[in-house]
């Protein structure tokens, strides 16, 4: 690494989580605030030094050493009267025979997983969990979080404070035994990572359309669960689903930023490597007989990904998978997806009566999607007027500039 | 070849740079310095700590420098090698610090043995 001076992509982001986890394991989660400060401070020091001197020989070790020293100094300064057992424990070390620095990847990952489980604890609200996870495990700063989740800085700060306080109250222990217990909670982690991914993928906020950062962080964190979790069908299925979706990013947007609907996507743009990885995880998930929500969704995505052309899509199977999904977890969103599949499997006329009878549930974006599906179906049967009405109804519900652009384009084409 | 001192001025705190931004900052600088080295335009560079003091006049009054939040201060320096001030300025224009809206000052170091 020192030869080329190249840091891996997202090096700081990734190491932020690793360092915080390692420090929290040695010094205790009670030091969370000091740890976060020390890590932030360490990055700033790195910016000063590396900018002028180039990268050190072993950047991860350099970062961890500097952060540890900064943390020890802070603890010493702020709590002289407190028994310094913890500090001593972390100090019985010389640079070489230092147990702290011999932390293998396994241990660092263990600690990160425990921290991840703690951040995704159901005691917190969904949004709070996404925020604190991105903050602690992915090094997202306040402005970055505010931008990604479309909140203002103050609201983000408050949410982080709330979540940190909750983390401290639970006083979790980061140790190998706890790591084993933590893996049993991978389901709650999956929920949050799934939401994080979708936040980046669908609820797309800015002109770029897809916040790939959020998607890739969700994928990276889900991968952390893999080697530790007992081969969990849910984790594998979730990863498969994420990889299938990520593979289609480049085709989903044109260079100048327009949504490209599935039917019109250039399938040669789909990322083969990501697809292959998706199929790998799908294979892993198949080993268990448990067909959960992510598994069904991943199967559907895999069917889209294996069809060479849109016309080749096996809508019959997709329809039956959506039916299973609907039984498992009924929602207007899944119903709408099922109706789209049905409109291709059985023809658009077959779904109109059900479409017209839908009252969307409270979930954000559902009302918008309902109008979009209606417009799409009416467009296909040649009812320009009804399609136009549905698009007009969708316009004020659109959250994203790309959605608005897309609707206007379709309306002009009617 | 003449030597030029290039001072970087910026706010003492780095604002709230995120992990990604900090990484981008380091990488840009690294590549820039590598380029300078290749062209033989780089002699040395050092960062300066944000803390420091002023000592003023005969009374030797010591005060903290203006190294506080929101105030610009010198955060580091480079010694560049160039044939003229114009060339040094052109080199300095490539400094990625400018992308973060920092200020760069270039001054020729006067040689000792001027003939």
TrEMBL record, chain A:
Any matching Pfam family: DUF6596
GO molecular function: DNA-binding transcription factor activity
Residue intervals of the DUF6596 domain: 187-285
RNA polymerase sigma-70 region domain span: 15-80
InterPro entries: DUF6596, RNA_pol_sigma70_r2, RNA_pol_sigma_r2, RNA_pol_sigma_r3/r4-like
Coiled-coil residue spans: none
GO BP field: DNA-templated transcription initiation
Provenance organism: Parapedobacter koreensis
Designated name of the protein: RNA polymerase, sigma subunit, ECF family
UniProtKB/TrEMBL annotation, chain B:
Domain YCII-related, first and last residues per copy: 12-112
Organism from which the protein derives: Parapedobacter koreensis
Name used for this protein in its record: Uncharacterized conserved protein
Cited Gene3D superfamilies: Dimeric alpha+beta barrel
InterPro entries per record: Dimeric_a/b-barrel, YCII
Entry superkingdom: Bacteria
Family according to the record: Belongs to the YciI family.
SUPFAM superfamilies assigned: Dimeric alpha+beta barrel (SSF54909)
